[in-house]
Amino acid sequence: MISAGRKSSPQSDRALGELCQIYWYPLYACVRHQGHSREDAEDLVQSFFARFLEKNHLEGLSAERGKFRAFLLVSLKHFLANEWDKSQRQKRGGGTQHLSLDWQSADERFHLDPPDPSSPDRTYDREWALALLDIVIRRLRDECDADGKAKLFEQAKGYLMVGQSTIPYLDAARALDMDEGAVRVAVHRLRKRYRELLREEIAQTITDPAQVEEELRSLQAALSG
User: Could you tell me the CA-to-CA distances from 55 to 13, 93, 161 in Å, in that order?
Assistant: First the structure.
């Protein structure tokens, strides 16, 4: 993820695409929770990303600044406070780099989410955590599909984040027509791989590997808050 700020290449372009897909909805939800309308939130996030990428602000993410999650939120706040002038805005979508983002689903999702009395910052962190977990789940699903374990994944995916003692291994074994012991081993391996992928994704959004554990705690706090 941090490599997105370097000279354009297939790798950096892919990183930029991942950046937009992971962070655009958390930013949109944050802006909406500040009281902006759907239309203004779309414009603000679209313009923020265009400005962010145009100015190559990722080059400013140093080891001293650390976490990309926090860096992006601070950048958004700066943009909203100092760099957005509605009176100078062109017709929506005009004059800015257009990013292919699913605004319709964003508005539907925003209204489906339960009311959140917490701050926009906490909303941003929660949506960041959910987006990150969605990426991890999709990566794990793809790996299982490639290994011919799609049915096992579908049966076990609900157990990836729950306590070991709450997993109904016998029920899963019956559904998969497998021995209970074999299911325990398979689910243990899936959970281990899930944690590995989660750490990999987090590691891509920080400049100091020592911060992985801290970000994991932040993710857990965002989901439980």
Answer: 15, 18, 38
| Amino acid type, 73 | L
**Domain hosting residue 6, numbered range:** 1-113
| Averaged pLDDT, 146-150 | 94
- Is residue 184 within 8 Å of residue 91, measured between CB atoms? no
Express each pLDDT in 63-99 by its tens digit: 444 588 888 898 899 888 876 655 345 444 444 445 5
Q: Which residue has the tokens 């932040």?
A: 218
Rounded distance between C-alpha atoms, residue 56 and residue 184, angstroms: 47
For residues 22 and 130, give the distance between their C-alpha atoms in angstroms, rounded to a whole number: 9
**Domain end call among 96, 113, 130:** 113
Cα–Cα distance for residue pair 78/100, rounded to 1 Å: 24
